[in-house]
Design brief:
Layout (H helix, E strand, L loop, with lengths): L1 H16 L1 H4 L6 H13 L21 E3 L6 E7 L9 E2 L12 E7 L2 E2 L14 E7 L2 E2 L13 E3 L4 E4 L13 E3 L4 E4 L13 E3 L4 E5 L11 E3 L4 E4 L13 E3 L4 E2 L14 E3 L6 E2 L13 E3 L4 E5 L19 E3 L9
Parallel strand pairs: 2-4, 3-5, 4-6, 6-8, 7-9, 8-10, 9-11, 10-12, 11-13, 12-14, 13-15, 14-16, 15-17, 16-18, 18-20, 19-21, 21-22
Antiparallel strand pairs: 1-2
Length: 335
């Protein structure tokens, strides 16, 4: 009896110590093959050291397997400190993972070249982040083929050319980050067809021309068009019934009468500095109880700053360099 117990104890210990005996590998063999090819095409960077053929790919760093299907659903390659040996382009092999839902390539300054068309094969992709890299070329129109996309972040890169109007065809898009690139041309009129009303960030580019009228149909929560060369009347972005929380139109060439604008009471941040806005500040601004950031400096505004709400909580720098604005926190108005 004692010998039988000893035998069972030995077997139990062996099962615990030996993955080969105790557990079957979860990783799908086709996914493992694809990942090893991706590693090779990325020139075997240190961050992918754990990607070893003798180990279960579901345990590798930077990837995630679905708990039910065991297929690879996430690649998240992110470097907190730039790695000198990660020097590559996005390879064709990235398109060999048919179940991939999330692809993140972030803070990789030596990742260069264009966004590979192979990404269009990832028909289950819903989250795409390629940011803070040195990729270049255009924002690809083929992204519109990925109908499950809810999040696109291509910020802080060297992308150029115009924004493809095809992106307006994405039915589930919740956020679009194209800021901090070298994009030019107009905002596509097709964006007015984005029924999902995504958060849109297009700042720090060279976009030009007026905002298309179709864009005013959107009911956006967050919008950043700052530091471009946009012109014309942007008042259609506002409205008393809209869900706007944050809007930044600063450092453009917008020109419209601010006194006629109706603002949503949901606004938290409103930055309009360095434009050509004229008229007076509407008294309705005092009713914006949630307003925390407000800046209308460097415009052509006139008249007395309305008293009330949060307007006097802003300092002089939120109002100065206008045509003839006056009243607290600026100097008193003359009679």
């Amino acid at each position: 009896m004692a010998s039988e117990k000893s035998f069972l104890l030995v077997v139990a210990v062996l099962l615990l110590l030996s993955p080969a005996l105790g557990a079957k590998e979860r990783c799908n063999p086709q996914d493992k093959k694809a990942l090893l090819q991706i590693k090779k095409d990325f020139n075997n960077p240190y961050v992918l050291t754990s990607w070893k053929p003798e180990e279960d790919c579901c345990t590798w760093y930077c990837v995630e397997c679905d708990r039910k299907t065991n297929r690879i659903v996430t690649i998240n390659i992110y470097l907190s400190v730039p790695e000198t040996n990660f020097s590559a382009k996005i390879p064709d092999s990235i398109g060999l993972l048919p179940y991939l839902q999330t692809l993140t390539l972030h803070h990789l300054p030596y990742l260069t070249g264009p966004i590979n068309p192979a990404i269009a094969k990832l028909t289950n992709l819903n989250f795409l982040q390629i940011s803070r890299t040195n990729i270049s070329g255009p924002v690809p129109a083929f992204l519109a083929q990925l109908k499950k996309l809810t999040y696109i972040d291509l910020s802080f890169n060297n992308l150029s050319g115009s924004i493809p109007p095809e992106l307006g065809q994405l039915p589930k898009l919740e956020a679009l980050h194209l800021d901090r690139n070298h994009l030019s041309g107009p905002i596509p009129a097709s964006f007015g067809s984005l029924k999902s009303n995504p958060d849109i960030y297009l700042s720090h580019n060279n976009l030009s021309g007026p905002i298309p009228p179709s864009f005013f149909r959107l009911n956006l929560t967050r919008l950043d068009l700052s530091r471009n060369k946009l012109v014309g009347d942007a008042s259609g972005l506002f409205g008393a019934t809209k869900a706007t929380e944050t809007i930044d139109l600063s450092r453009n060439q917008f020109a419209f009468d601010l006194s006629k604008v109706k603002f949503s009471k949901t606004i938290i941040s409103l930055d309009l500095n360095h434009n050509k806005l004229y008229g007076a500040l509407p008294a309705s601004l005092t009713a914006l109880e949630n307003l925390q950031l407000f800046n209308v400096s460097y415009n052509r505004l006139c008249g007395k700053i309305p008293v009330g709400g949060n307007l006097q909580k802003n300092d002089v720098y939120s109002y100065f360099h206008n045509k003839c604005l006056c009243g607290s926190p600026l100097p008193k108005c003359s009679n």
